[in-house]
Amino acid sequence: MAAVKEVEELNKNELQNGDDEDDLDAVEEGENKDPAKKKKKKKKKKKAETEGGDSVTINATEKIDPEKIEDGGAEGDEKKKKKKKNKSKSGKGPSKEQTNPPTIPIAELYPDGNFPEGQIMEHGPAEGIDERTAKERFSSEEKRALDRLHQDIYQEIRHAAEAHRQTRKYMRDWIKPGMTMIQICEELESTARRLIGEDGLKAGLAFPTGCSRNHCAAHYTPNTGDTTVLEYDDVVKIDFGTHINGRIIDCAFTLSFNPRYDPLVKGVQEATEAGIKASGVDARLCDVGAAVQEVMESHEVELDGQVYQVKPIRNLNGHSIGPYRIHAGKTVPIVKGGETTRMEENEFYAIETFGSTGRGQVHDDMDCSHYMKNFDQQFVPLRLQSSKQLLNLINKNFGTLAFCKRWLERAGASRYAMALKDLCDKGVVDAYPPLCDIKGCYTAQFEHTILLRPTCKEVISRGDDY
């Protein structure tokens, strides 16, 4: 407001000194020959512009609007509207076009470090929290200030999200029946590594590519020598993650080629959206699960003349995400009941739902491929030299991020089976076998990563596809 007061005082003084409106215009155009008066006006005008931000020219007879002064005037308003209309989700658009297939790292597409925002949503009202309180977050200056404090973290996770979006956009068109699962995973992983700009533990893939088929719901990726081929009648879940400095994007989708599975896929996708809508600061985890279950169980799918209700897989859940920690401690159920723990500001969550035509419960099955170092495990003495060497390799290449046997081999490990078993037996590394429902059923999955900013809820991994 300082700028407003200076300009008002200037106009008043000039009019009292006998200058009419034309004289003021002449001063501004450089026609007034009085050097002292011109210098005085120029000095005060400069001070007003410096304190007020954008440059504004005001005539003495013009009515002064403080809001216009602070925002840069009517012309500034017009420029802001135009700028807002032309810019992408969160900042400037990419500086160059991506190739097809994608090969240009995301950091080169956005050299200014401003990566696209995800979908912005208001925090919805939660149990015990009125709607007005939830909406006020969006316009609160205090909350906006807190938002600005975490911009570096937000840009890192958006960087990872853009790499995920562009990778999956390419892969959704590229994957076809008849391909081997190893072929699919290697293409996806090499694409994501290029786009994320893989750099040790600073940037890369957050966990192995899940490509679980049919009754297998999660945690399957092919080991070396696996000759499994994707079939036309398969329902495959593509679940992969990217990260920048440990800020993880965990996002998944389901592909089916036979349209008879469309109702199953649609039911699970809509249930995921219901979970996202129910999530937010102060939302109870149990309420999110209830919202997911209600929507999912409202869908049916007919297969071979038999109608199946789409059931949520009750022992699979969403979860909170921490730096370099894919499961950070809080569990987001997909059925009613569960914990009344509330979501909090600046938490990251994977809103992840699974639907099935089977029992709606999974168990360990098939050969294990997924492993991850125990995040909370303290020092454990190791006797086998091979175990020590393998642990050093894991620490260097993956840290506490998940990995698979193919990735160990890519990092140079050989004859590691006994050492890996020893690390698992001692609790240094945890094994995550494939999770399967009953054979003959079909499962689907959708997942998004959301960020609960102080002002709003950002679905970071949102794209044009889902």
UniProtKB/TrEMBL annotation:
GO cellular component, one term: cytoplasm
Pfam families xref list: Peptidase_M24 (PF00557)
SUPFAM superfamilies: Creatinase/aminopeptidase, Winged helix' DNA-binding domain
Annotated EC: 3.4.11.18
Compositionally biased region (Basic and acidic residues): 1-12, 62-79
Basic residues: compositionally biased ranges: 36-47, 80-90
Cofactor note: Binds 2 divalent metal cations per subunit. Has a high-affinity and a low affinity metal-binding site. The true nature of the physiological cofactor is under debate. The enzyme is active with cobalt, zinc, manganese or divalent iron ions. Most likely, methionine aminopeptidases function as mononuclear Fe(2+)-metalloproteases under physiological conditions, and the catalytically relevant metal-binding site has been assigned to the histidine-containing high-affinity site.
Signal peptide as annotated in the record: none
Ranges of biased composition (kind: Acidic residues): 17-29
Function comment: Cotranslationally removes the N-terminal methionine from nascent proteins. The N-terminal methionine is often cleaved when the second residue in the primary sequence is small and uncharged (Met-Ala-, Cys, Gly, Pro, Ser, Thr, or Val).
Name of the protein in its database record: Methionine aminopeptidase 2
Gene that specifies this protein: LOC113495468
